[in-house]
Design a protein that fits this description.
37% strand; mainly beta; 2 domains; Collagenase (Catalytic Domain); 430 residues; globular; Neuraminidase
């Protein structure tokens, strides 16, 4: 199904990859954009134009060929693209072949190795003797440290060299398979194993494997974490001993942000270049460039508050109402009826808001506040929601659940180890 990077410092948070296209590829920009759209058609991967992110990729022209690093390497890294490529069946045009080639290099940048370098490849395809010593064909014997194979060999992976170079063996499952021209579902599912969730539990910050439910403590030398966490521009933000901290999701390092000491923080969300924090009875907008100088500080936000960003809007529950909040001024407008007393958590996914209230999960229109109940009364007590691709993650009753956002059906991930959790953060971008 894929040979995927396992070094956490090389993961892209939320599989969100900021990019820009260099002027050297101006004439080939439509090809690069077509390759980007092939990946963005998946439920988990998001390539987005770079704004202020510190880690990103740049597509550049290189007459010598195409190449990319594996995974996130820090700063702006390069994906090299040749001006011309060879056309192979079933490609009908050079543009079609070039699009598939760029999509292959994007796969490397996201964290995928060559499919034909898996340890089991000799059971499936034939490597011609003339190529067997080429580094692009050698089996990755260091897989234990850098990569792991996920699932069975994927004959249609965009990361495998085609049958003109690696013909299938007799009785191979690859016999009759189409030449890969786009990322396969197994390519995407292999990358999905790199997605992580962050939460605060019993004063400690944890990174959670969304595939298995296993957890690992982040910044293990420090306790004192409390309150909400939020993602912004590829970094995680949270509070330790009353101080706002920035955490690189791939490194166990926390850096203090600003000089202010915070108390009574109840909710936080990231949007644009700012954090939105509810502390005491005030909603404040904190630009990362000036975290001690709020753009606004608005009263009347006491009690239980939940926040979620969706598109360019900020949404909040407080008291009886769901509100759309203007991120520029902090002014708010009620959506729908007074129905949300006691809401415990909210998340945004694919244009919808999801709110847990009165033991039930609701799918809510972000346009008019209308809603429908999903499933039965299964969500009492402390809860926390986060979006992830095509489903929701929910902490409740000591357990982490994967939840179908259409039906509300759920399955448990990992053991019962999360009593009292009230915050969950992913880097999924709607």
């Amino acid at each position: 199904m894929g040979l995927v990077n396992v070094k956490k410092e090389w993961f892209w948070p939320g599989l969100r990859l900021p990019y820009r296209i260099d002027a050297s590829l101006a004439e080939k920009r439509p090809i690069v954009m077509a390759a980007i759209e092939l990946w963005n058609a998946s439920p988990f991967v998001r390539l987005v134009p770079r704004t202020a992110e510190r880690d990103s990729v740049v597509f550049q022209h290189d007459p010598g060929g195409c190449s990319s690093s594996i995974g996130r390497r820090g700063g702006e890294q390069v994906i090299l693209c040749a001006a011309a490529v060879s056309v192979w069946p079933p490609c009908q045009t050079e543009a079609q072949a070039a699009t598939a080639t760029v999509a292959h290099e994007i796969g490397h940048a996201l964290g995928l190795h060559h499919e034909h370098q898996r340890p089991d490849r000799d059971d499936v395809v034939v490597i011609p003797e003339a190529l067997s010593k080429n580094d692009q064909y050698t089996i990755r014997t260091e897989a234990r440290d850098f990569a792991r194979p996920i699932g069975p060999y994927d004959c249609c992976s965009i990361m495998g060299y085609g049958w003109q170079r690696t013909p299938p063996k007799t009785r191979s499952p690859c016999l009759g398979a189409a030449e890969p021209l786009a990322p396969s579902l197994p390519d995407v599912l292999a990358l999905r194993t790199t997605l992580r969730l962050w939460t605060v539990h019993q004063g400690r910050l944890f990174r959670v494997d969304t595939f298995t439910g296993e957890r690992a403590e982040v910044v293990a030398a420090f306790s004192g974490w409390s309150g909400p966490t939020a993602p912004l521009l590829g970094r995680l933000y949270g509070f330790r001993s009353g101080l706002l901290q920035e955490i690189d999701p791939g490194l166990d390092v926390a850096t203090r942000v600003g000089s202010r000491t915070w108390t009574d923080v109840t909710a936080m969300a990231g949007l644009g270049d700012s954090l939105f924090v509810v502390a005491g009875s005030r909603l404040q907008r904190l630009p990362l460039a000036l975290p001690d100088s709020p753009t606004f500080s608005v009263e009347d936000w006491g009690g239980r508050v939940t926040l979620a960003a969706l598109g360019g809007d900020l949404f909040a529950t407080q008291g009886d109402y769901l509100y759309r909040v203007d991120p520029k001024t902090g002014s708010r407008q009620a959506l729908g009826k007074a129905a949300w007393t006691g809401a415990t958590s909210m998340a945004a996914l694919r244009g919808w808001l999801y709110i847990i209230q009165n033991d039930r999960l609701h799918r809510v229109s972000s346009q008019d506040g209308s809603w429908q109940v999903l499933g039965g009364p299964a969500w009492g007590g402390d809860t926390a929601l986060a979006p992830l691709g095509d489903y929701l993650l929910a902490f409740q009753n000591s357990r982490l659940h994967a939840v179908d956002p259409q039906s509300g059906a759920w399955q448990v991930l990992g053991p019962a180890q999360w009593a009292g959790v009230r915050t969950a953060t992913s880097f999924y971008e709607n």
